[in-house]
Amino acid sequence: MNWSLLVQLLANGLIVGMLYGVVAMCFVLIYKSTQVVNFAQGEFLVLGAWVCLWFITDMQMPFIVAFLFTLVFMTLFGIMIQVVILRPLIGEPVVSVIMVTIGLSIFLQALMNWIFGNSAERFPQVFETESVNVAGLNVESAYLMSLVMSVLIMGGFYLFFRFSKYGLAMRATAFNQQTAQSLGISVRQVFALAWAISAIVSGVAGIIIGMVNSVSSSLAIIGIKVFPAVILGGLDSIVGAVIGGIIIGLLENFAEFVDGQFLNWGNLFTIAPFYVLIIILMIKPYGLFGTKDIERI
Amino acid sequence: MATTSLRPCGDFRTTYKADQFLLQTRWIAIWTMLAIALLGAAPALVDGYIVSLMILIGIYGIAALGLNILVGMTGQISLGHAAFFGFGAFSSAWLNSTTGIPVFFTIPLAGLMTTAVGMIFGLPAARIKGLYLAIATLASQFILQDFFARANWFSGGSSGSLAETVTIFGFPLDSDERYYYLVLFWTLISLFAVANLKRSRDGRALVAVRDHYLSAEIMGINLTKYRILAFGISSFFAGLGGALFGHYLGYVSAEGFTILLSIQFLAMIIIGGLGSVMGTILGTAFIVLLPQFMEAFTGGMLDIFPNALAGLASGQAYIKEMSVGAAIILFLIFEPEGLAHRVKLIRQSWKLYPFSY
């Protein structure tokens, strides 16, 4: 047994898991307020990362300015997607809504590969020190920043939903659209807002992941990896998304450890979450915190 | 004879039996026979490239028909169809190389093997439906893909496996023109089987499960059985199509059966029309021909404006991919019922011309 490797991997798992949690939160936000499963979430990440990188390298902006510009861009992008593509499909069956986001994901992926190229590119160095030593563990500073950002985003979400007027409107809409509408909430605005927030936060997560690894279209795989996390937590629970994300992150790295130490299968860590996903769906279909559907005839 | 001349126009059916008849009017029967005859003569009439495209349409069409049973008739979304398609391709090659059964027979046997696997991966459907099921099938896509890459004894691992050419009584189907007839044979059988399934008790049970599963259960339909059966039937066609695909290429590798192909299968049935047999073939043709069309189109544009669109040349591959995504989105927004619905409208306006009321 190689204990220090295990601890290192679990620490990585926690950090990556927090990022999964953030992306899962975006996913759940869209699902909860608009009943759309967004298969293009991964492409949102990649788009955010590419746009930020483009602002930095081609427009010669400092990182902070580029970051803010990216946020503005992602807001507009999220609203546009909702208005142009998802709004005509309100009330259509599940398969149509799933397929439209899948179509969107194919479209965006090809478009981004075309515009930004399909080779990986690195962010310019943002931090002075490459890695820091925290309690005997070697942690890259980008990882540390991603941890801080994840906690900040989660805290921001909590405050937004707890105290702001729009957060309240969104919770009301998620609870019951008709009642919310009759109380004077514009459901259209709430839908657009949900997509905008989700796009912004995905963009931020994309930038963070792009800084930790590098920016390429393969980042979009996170949009798929989020599914086990979301299902584990329950499709409509924001807390569940965070916890599910952390569990999947830990599990992935634990699987890598077991694989590397004992099994030597090669790629257990990419596939383990999906086995877990099937098992959860068989035992507890609505996840740890999801609302159980009660149907009446 | 007087009664026949007084027959009202339009097709009226007075018995349930007539209503269930497969070829409902004489003209439909005539057109069907004509279409089959034309398809049979096709290799002699069109050039080799078009024949190869028709083979692809037939192969993908069989698999898409299977998916349409699952999604269009039973209402269960599957994002893992390409994995079953791939499983069929591998298992036919594997059966042939290990047991020595002639390829002609391993193709349907591969379909049966895939049925078994499909029913295992369909087990979650006993408890879950809708989105949750879609995500479970997504997991089965990744698990099977991982299995293909890992199981050296079955799929040859990362190097893939060779699929023998089909021979019938020592007569090799080694050219596109010859293979075309094998694909045509299986395509027609599949079309006939699915069209028949739709009017059988089991088919109606599947539709009932889609439309209102609680009511279906109350009417005495065993939900678990039919949900898993739908997976089984759909996987059979996926495996059959996959086996034909494997022997057509002569070489099967795990890279060909990714989630992107699963999405393309879904796109075929959505563009064609959910639950429609003819629509499935139309949709398949659309998805197979769309990249060809886009290539010709961008090529043509480049010839006309060589300078203004210089950037287009490098993006041709991406434009092909984008067109698939865009087609899915546009169809869902503007023609959610698919090509089958559009064809029906055209036929109706033709029939009712000039008084369309």
Automatic annotation (TrEMBL), chain A:
Organism: Oricola cellulosilytica
Membrane-spanning ranges: 6-30, 37-57, 63-86, 93-116, 142-161, 190-212, 218-251, 263-283
Places the protein is found: Cell membrane
Keywords: Amino-acid transport, Cell membrane, Membrane, Transmembrane, Transmembrane helix, Transport
Membrane topology: Multi-pass membrane protein
Lineage, uppermost ranks: Bacteria, Pseudomonadati, Pseudomonadota, Alphaproteobacteria, Hyphomicrobiales
Protein name: Branched-chain amino acid ABC transporter permease
Taxonomic superkingdom: Bacteria
GO MF term set: transmembrane transporter activity
Keyword Transmembrane: yes
Xref: Pfam families: BPD_transp_2
Membership in a protein family: Belongs to the binding-protein-dependent transport system permease family. LivHM subfamily.
GO cellular component term, pick one: plasma membrane
GO BP of this protein: amino acid transport
Annotated CDD domains: TM_PBP1_LivH_like
Residues in the signal sequence: none
From TrEMBL, chain B:
One protein family per Pfam: BPD_transp_2
Location (main, coarse): membrane
InterPro entries reported for this sequence: ABC_transp_permease, LivM-like
Topology of this chain in the membrane: Multi-pass membrane protein
Protein name: Branched-chain amino acid ABC transporter permease
GO function term, MF aspect, one: branched-chain amino acid transmembrane transporter activity
Organism: Oricola cellulosilytica
Compartmental location: Cell membrane
Keywords: Cell membrane, Membrane, Transmembrane, Transmembrane helix
UniProt GO cellular component terms: plasma membrane
Membrane-crossing residue ranges in chain numbering: 21-42, 48-70, 77-95, 101-123, 130-149, 179-197, 228-251, 257-290
